[in-house]
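Kindly review both lines to help learners:
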Amino acid sequence: MPTPRREDFRFISPLRVRWSEVDQQKVVFNAHYLTYFDIAITDYWRAMAIPYEASMPGLGGEPFVRKAAVEFHASARLDDQLEVGLKCARIGTSSMGFVGGIFRDEQLLISSELVYVFADPHAQVSVPVPHRLREIMLGYEACEPMTRTEMGAWAALAAEVLSLRQDAGLAEAEDAGDTTALHVLLRNRLGLPVACGRLLPTVDGIATIDRLGVRRVLRGSHYGRATLMALLRAAEDRGDHTLQVHATRGSRGFFERHSFAAFGEPFEMDSVVYTTLRRAL
C-alpha cells in the first residue's frame, strides 16, 4: 500500500473525533477508521456535484465495496480534528481504486486502499464504469470544474427550477417575480440542476436576489456560493450598484460571509423573521 502525503489529495473531508468513537485505551477504536473513510466517500460524491441517489439509476449501476484495507501508523484521540483525504488512483473496466489517508495536521495516522466495483444492483453483476462517470472522476482529480452556470428567462428554465426549489425547501409555486427575473441554474456534469437563484429587476440601482437554493443532499459543498457569485456578476454586468437580499436567521450568516451587511431593522412576514442585507458592487 503506498504511503500517502497530505498534498497528494485534492479532496479532503474534515471531521472531529467524538466520545463514542474512543475505546478503553483512549484512542479511536480501529473499526471507526473504516467509517471515517466511508463518510469521506459520500462527501467525495458531493465534491463532484453528484447527488448519489438521484444520479445512479441514470448511470445504470452503482459502486459496491470489494476491498477495504487499512494500515495503522498512529492513533487518533478524543477531540482530534482530522482530515480524511481520498484520491481516485485507478479506474478499470468495472472497478475504481482509491487511495486514502487520515491526517492530524501533517501527520499520517491511517492509510487505506479501497476498491469499488460498479455493478447492477438488481442483477448483482459487475458492469463497465460508465464513460460519463469516468470522465467526471478523472476530471475532478485533474482539478476541472464540476459544474457549469446557465442563465436564462423563466420560460426556458421553469420546470427544472420549480423541481429544484421543491427539493431545496423553497417556495414551489411560480410568482409574479419569476417572469421578469433573470434566473441562474447551476448544473453538474451529468446535466442535473444542483442549485438555483434569481435576480429581480433593478429598482433605483438596487438589485434583489432571492429563491437561492441548493439541492438538499449537496448543501455545504459551495454550490450556493457559486450561484451567488454568478448572480453578483450578472448584477454588475447590468450596471447595478447594490445587491440586496432578505435573509432569514438561518441564511444570514451565509450572506455575511460574502460581504453583505445588515440594512435597517429585521421584519416579520408569514411568521418568519427577515433581515435586509446589502452589498455594494
About this structure: The first strand starts at residue 11 and ends at 16. The CA atoms of residues 135 and 200 lie 36 Å apart. The domain at 147-280 is CATH 3.40.630.30 (Aminopeptidase).
